[in-house]
Amino acid sequence: MPTQDDVRRIALALPGAVEAEGEFAIRANGRLFVWAWLERTDPKRARVPSREVVVIRVRNELDKQTLLEMDDPSIFTEPHFAGWPDVLVRLANVRRALLERLITDSHALVVAKPPPRSRRRA
Known about the structure:
alpha+beta, 6-stranded antiparallel β-sheet, 3 helices, 6 strands, globular
């Protein structure tokens, strides 16, 4: 069973990958490609980072739907991610080879894009 530490090792071994300070969020080229899912544990409280589920960016909605249709219990989504090219991955259920492939493909996506433009402050 992979852990967040395994995810970290896989992701940070990729060129240009850096982890955000104080949170589990890994970027390359200024763009997120894997991060901790913020889980709603209490409907009246803020979401909290999960150590058991990560969010991984995919190419597009078609890739997302293809992964979801595999009927792999480790891959799922929630309404919060509707319309976004991201899948949620349960670390307890995911095969290591699939996890590595998802992370490396996600990394390739973000490094192929130009860095995000900096936002101007008013």
